[in-house]
Amino acid sequence: MAGRIVAGFGVGYALMIAPVYTAELAPALSRGLLTSFTEIFINAGVLLGYVSNFAFSKLPEHLGWRLMLGAGAIPSVFFAFAVLTMPESPRWLVMQGRLGEARRILLKTSDSKEEAEMRLADIKEMAGIPESCTDEVVVVEKRSHGEGVWRELLLRPSPTVRRVLVAAVGIHLFQQASGIDAVVLYSPRIFEKAGIKKKSSLLGATVCVGISKTSFILVATFLLDRMGRRPLLLSSVGGMILSLLGLASGLTIVNHSEEKVGWAIALCILTVLTFVASFSIGLGPIAWVYSSEIFPLRLRAQGGSLAAGVNRMMSGIIVTTFLSLYKAITIEGSFFMFAGIATVTWVFIYVFLPETRGRTLEEMEVLFSKWRWTLDDSMK
């Protein structure tokens, strides 16, 4: 338990920092692609975990579970060394007055010198530094410890900041409330309830869940900066709603039939796979991309941490209550409930989330200051 707590701190840091760091380093036109890498590699790791667990399960029981847990230390060691080679965020450097370092990093991460200078000028404007200033280091108002940020974010937010906060926290709340962790973590139990009893078949079906989840995140990666955030989010959640309704219906038929119903079992397996695929093509990666790019520079770290905290809190609530929930209202009733939550999620995205594709991080505050929901806006 102590080890899991320490690992939890590391996961929490990474979940908050990785998408924000990537968004601040990436050019606007490829920000969606690069920021979604966080979700891609998380799910690639989950898939490797499924596969390695499948292999370790064949070892003696006293050894297998220890290797399942201990194997996670190997990529962590590589990650620790890789972090030492990473450049600092140019936006953070500008806020500390280290303009020379920021310029050099932007030159390495931009397609041209002109693009780097334009990005630097936008960042300096948001940080309150004159565009004409070319010093290596300048004195700026210190905000690195978050003075006044939480007050501006939570206690006295402007209408623009309030819209940004609702969008960022809402998308993370609904991402987890729609039941993804219940499906992924309890998929063996779902398949068992659907009528699959053989242990090797349960593990094999679970591996298929991991493959489906990872594969469709790769698809989302290449569509994010072409189709935009809103179309992918709306189609993703629409697919999740249909999949949850299909899964709940299939489980209802299986659990209320005296004989084994093959097509209903197949429907349950198929809808679990389509659910994780639908999640992975939109809501899964885009929640992290969206929340990391919409906060103003001065609020980005605290806003991102708040959104990530809501995400993990809701995940914990779903995971720890799912078994009690399905015992209280049946497993099919649980997924009908998740389908209802997913429907509310679709409406929330339709109403509250404007399109951000192709905009620089510095333009987001202007976008949300002008955002008013109308039917015409929602169709854009």
UniProtKB/TrEMBL annotation:
One cellular component (GO) term of this entry: membrane
InterPro entries linked: MFS_dom, MFS_sugar_transport-like, MFS_trans_sf, STP/PLT_plant, Sugar/inositol_transpt, Sugar_transporter_CS
Iron is among the record's keywords: no
Membrane topology per record: Multi-pass membrane protein
Stretches assigned to the Major facilitator superfamily (MFS) profile domain: 1-357
Transmembrane segments: 32-51, 63-84, 202-224, 231-251, 263-290, 310-329, 335-353
Keywords in alphabetical order: Membrane, Sugar transport, Symport, Transmembrane, Transmembrane helix, Transport
Keyword Membrane among UniProt keywords: yes
The organism's place on the tree of life at top rank: Eukaryota
Gene Ontology MF term list: carbohydrate transmembrane transporter activity; symporter activity
Subcellular location: Membrane
Family (UniProt): Belongs to the major facilitator superfamily. Sugar transporter (TC 2.A.1.1) family.
PANTHER family: POLYOL TRANSPORTER 5-LIKE, SOLUTE CARRIER FAMILY 2, FACILITATED GLUCOSE TRANSPORTER
Protein name as catalogued: Major facilitator superfamily (MFS) profile domain-containing protein
Source organism (scientific name): Nelumbo nucifera (Sacred lotus)
